[in-house]
Amino acid sequence: MSILEIEDLKKVYEGGFEALKGVSLEIEEGEILALLGPNGAGKTTLISTICGITTSTSGDVHVGGFNIKDDYRAARSLIGLVPQEINLEPFETVWNTVRFSRGLFGKKRNDAYLETVLQKLSLWDKKDSRIMELSGGMKRRVLIAKALSHEPRVLFLDEPTAGVDVALRKDMWDTVAELKRDGVTIILTTHYIEEAEAIADRVGVINKGELLLLEEKASLMQRLGKKQMKVELQDAIQSLPESLSAYDLALEEGGSVLTYSYDTRSERTGITTLLSDLSAAGLVLKDLQTAQSSLEDIFVGLVEEGQS
Amino acid sequence: MNWTAITAIYKYEMARFFRTLTQSFISPVISTSLYFVVFGAAIGSRIEQVEGVSYGAFIVPGLIMLSIMTQGISNASFGIYFPKFIGTIYELLSAPVNFIEIVIGYVGAAATKSLFIGVVILATAGFFVDLEIQHPIAMIAFMVLTCTSFALFGFIIGIWAKNFEQLQLVPLLIVTPLVFLGGSFYSISMLPPFWQTVTLFNPVVYLISGFRWAFFGLADVPVGLSLVAIAGFTAVCLVAIWWIFKSGWRIRS
């Protein structure tokens, strides 16, 4: 069963701005889903709506089978939220802040559990420090500790590495991987493609309130593995010679360019034989170039498609 | 009811109070002493008695009311405004709690703090004047009700306020004048007839009068009316808060 089911979720703000235009999404227990999108795409609105910070205009959300409106207590108990901004009370100690979060979610006091959470996030020796004394990276981990304090089954990480340096980003990825091992379902938003690539099982691309793509990272990477070779011919041809029909070739730009698609990860790319077959067919090459479509290209392409 | 959550909010808010216990404790003691020096000794020596009670003792209920009303408002308004200001309100909104639980936690803590200050002022006053409390149970009831209702009012202000200036606006511009003009330091009967009538439109008059009755058995308005006034004020605040959470006004977008 899916741990999170989102059906046709819409959010129109008071001024008429459509932040979510009917998003539908299902998330399986234990997976990591990365929601990619530019700023203002609706990522935070989506998370805020699921968590109860923003009210939806229409649509349904179920968490662990519980409706977020009718069964909000049961639904919200399952959710941990790590916000994008570092929203913490500066004068409080780490320990009090984390204990407060646990209590707020209605969980009985369990200092041993909180200790393991803080240990895992390397915050245990800072437990009596006031938040204002901590570094930025530690503050972010305090936010995660707060979200984990009530033993959630789904964890939302809203831009967990925005404005974080490279080393800390790597740390954060390790933390996420460890949480996954503990069986926590994770939904994270990001506008870093490498981040989605590094930690997600599935990737969703969202822009202007619409989910443009939702795909297993592996198959997305397969699309990334595709390369194209463009062969510019000295003289344009009307149609492909019979001897070249076996190749995945396309004739472009009025017959002066041949485009060959191949997989860089397959054992043989077929380039050598293609080139010798081309000269055997009497075609003279003017120029040659190869290009790889990156996740960035796919992403930018999708976003542009959405805009046009 | 999610009592664990209510306790968590209450304790967290009280912890803030205890962190600054010295300030919380010393400032009411000093300000009460000042009032006694200025009003009790300097002015009081010329007034001597008001309706059979020494002037110094007469102002004690008004002084306590003045403090618990302003403290109730400022504690509760700050208590809920601060999470809004620093952004930690996200946690409150995403927690499995309803508005009644949030209000009990925040308002309960704010009311407790102002009650504590009221008791401190009462004890300080005991050093300056001989106090008699004719109706101790009514005295406690009035104090608790006033602390609670003004904390509720403060909670509304805290949600309404968009900046620190607004947070101070209502207490400074409305509450303090109403309290000063509500018979804290004088009996309504000391005013000319016209102003006596005008004063009756000030809701604070009813609270101070009832509270003073609990001490000395004398009141400007019937005690029943005082009770109705405070119950009415509490009810209005509760309805306002219910509406705020139902509509998400200034909290949920």
TrEMBL record, chain A:
Keyword S-adenosyl-L-methionine included in the entry's annotation: no
Which keywords are on file for this protein?
ATP-binding, Nucleotide-binding, Transport
Q: Which residues form the ABC transporter domain?
A: 4-233
Which GO-annotated molecular functions does the record name? ATP binding; ATP hydrolysis activity
> PANTHER family, alphabetically?
ABC TRANSPORTER ATP-BINDING PROTEIN
Protein name per the record:
Putative ABC transporter ATP-binding protein YbhF
Highest taxon in the source lineage? Bacteria
**Spans traversing the lipid bilayer:** none
Q: Which InterPro entries match?
A: AAA+_ATPase, ABC_transporter-like_ATP-bd, ABC_transporter-like_CS, ABC_transporter_ATP-binding, P-loop_NTPase
Q: Which organism is it from?
A: Cognatishimia activa
- What CDD domains would the database entry show? ABC_DR_subfamily_A
Automatic annotation (TrEMBL), chain B:
CC annotations in GO: ATP-binding cassette (ABC) transporter complex
Cellular compartment(s): Cell inner membrane; Membrane
Membrane topology per the entry is: Multi-pass membrane protein
Grouped into one coarse class, the protein's main location is: membrane
Q: Does the keyword Kinase apply?
A: no
Q: Which InterPro entries does UniProt cross-reference here?
A: ABC-2_transport_permease, ABC2_TM, ABC2_TM_bact-type, ABC_2_transport
Citing just one GO molecular function, the answer is: ABC-type transporter activity
Query: Which keywords are on file for this protein?
Result: Cell membrane, Membrane, Transmembrane, Transmembrane helix, Transport
Keyword Transmembrane set for record: yes
Q: Which residues cross the membrane?
A: 21-43, 55-82, 140-161, 167-188, 200-219, 225-245
Describe the location of the ABC transmembrane type-2 domain by residue ranges.
19-248
Q: Which family does it belong to?
A: Belongs to the ABC-2 integral membrane protein family.
Name this protein carries in UniProt: Transport permease protein
* Organism encoding this protein: Cognatishimia activa
